[in-house]
Amino acid sequence: NAGVTQTPKFRVLKTGQSMTLLCAQDMNHEYMYWYRQDPGMGLRLIHYSVGEGTTAKGEVPDGYNVSRLKKQNFLLGLESAAPSQTSVYFCASSYDRFFREKLFFGSGTQLSVL
Amino acid sequence: SQQGEEDPQALSIQEGENATMNCSYKTSINNLQWYRQNSGRGLVHLILIRSNEREKHSGRLRVTLDTSKKSSSLLITASRAADTASYFCATDAPEKGGGNKLTFGTGTQLKVEL
Predict the structure, then answer these.
(1) What residue of A is the nearest CA neighbor of B4?
(2) Of the candidates A33, A7, A23, which has an alpha carbon nearest to the alpha carbon of residue B104?
(3) If you count Cβ atoms within 10 Å of the first and of the last residue's Cβ in chain A, which end, N or C, has fewer?
(4) Residue A95: how many CB atoms within 10 A of its CB?
């Protein structure tokens, strides 16, 4: 039972480069989320999705785009990476909406933008 | 300061001792969740306590919620070296304009020494 799988685990980008982070879940969850974790800041929500074909902005959406073409996948894109986007990125999913139930997290992607 | 703030920021104890960490928040909540994060890994859900509950247990974990004081505590009894991790509280609260928001605190780093 894989749960939530994120790829890649590590990535180093130069300023201005683009990349896509992939999140896949095998629990048939409707709700998926992308968070970033920075020292002393806690986790902050970037974008989320309430079902296939839907996306919505979270707390810190600027500089990121997302897509949910398939229910099991949620992609996070950086079109032109900036050093401020150096962070650890976590994908999560949940069965219920509005955070009434627990979130399942992936193991994270450590991204460095030089 | 943030909606959910943990106290202390860091805690070091001996194996076998109890560990207590606290979470304070500012606004009314629907529920409060506790998560554990081992170094370099994703967050793992521990316990969810709803606003109408005062105490919940799960194995060696005991969570209390005092909505009048807007605070929660996580007690880990008979700690083990494997409990070494960061612990985060997350509060689910209504947002202005509708919807809900899950806000993570900055975490308590627990170190359990042999």
Answers:
(1) A42
(2) A33
(3) N
(4) 14
Taking an 8 Å cut-off on Cβ atoms, the answer to whether B92 and A99 are in contact is yes
For chain B, say whether A4 makes contact (Cβ under 8 Å): yes
User: Is there a contact between B89 and B34 (Cβ–Cβ < 8 Å)?
Assistant: yes
> Cα separation of A86 and A12, whole Å?
9
In whole angstroms, what is the distance from residue A13 CA to residue A36 CA? 16
Show the tokens assigned to B24: 């304070």
* Separation in Å, CA A50 to CA B30, B31, B58: 19, 20, 29
* Contact B40/A at CB under 8 A: yes
Q: What is the pLDDT along chain A (114 residues), one digit of tens a residue?
A: 679 999 999 999 999 999 999 999 999 999 999 999 998 888 999 999 999 999 999 999 999 999 999 999 999 999 999 999 999 999 999 988 766 778 999 999 999 999
From A108's Cα to the closest Cα of chain B, the distance in A is 6
